[in-house]
Amino acid sequence: MFNDNQIQFTGNLGGDPELRYGPSGVARVSFTVFVNDTKTAKNQDPKSHPIRVSAFGELAENVTESLEKGQRVLVVGNIDTYDMPGLFNEEGKSVNRTGFSVRADEIAPSLRWATATVKRSDRRQQGSGQASEQAAPVRPTQNQGRPARNQAPAQNVVADDDF
Description:
- The protein is mainly β.
- The chain has a single domain, classed as CATH 2.40.50.140.
- It has helices at residues 57-66, 123-126, and strands spanning 6-13, 18-21, 27-36, 48-56, 72-88, 94-109, 114-115, 141-142, 157-159.
- The protein has a 5-stranded mixed barrel with strand order 1-3-4-6-5. Strands 7-8 form a two-stranded antiparallel sheet.
- A hairpin with a 5-residue loop joins strand 5 (72-88) and strand 6 (94-109).
- The longest helix has 10 residues, at 57-66.
- The radius of gyration is 18 Å and the shape is globular.
- The chain starts with 5 loop residues before the first strand and ends with a strand.
- The model is unreliable at 126-138 and 142-156 (pLDDT under 50).
């Protein structure tokens, strides 16, 4: 199926992915990816643009278990737009602005400056919705002199009834 608003980009995670569960039990992860602008003048510092990303279901759980702040990722998804009411300009007049975020279909660690070990999760076979300890994906190891963490960041799991 053809989607005319599909986007793909690479960038660095601005923070650890935050996992939430909705009222129906569906997992949702959200995080910000900072994309560097490579088209700058010679004397200017490169600019970085934040892009909000969200994913749902098993992809959301896998992202939370596998990725952490600072890692380079590849995101493929669709653009969602939303209105931002209540903004005011310099004269105090209300202005309408439109924002966007990306609803991800695929998220992967970039292997340009890192390595990763991929393990298939067995969530569907267990029936409980939770992956076994042996099946959890391994975090990519970045060449920054620090070891990879192989445990899921439990502090980022939050119950949420708003989505």
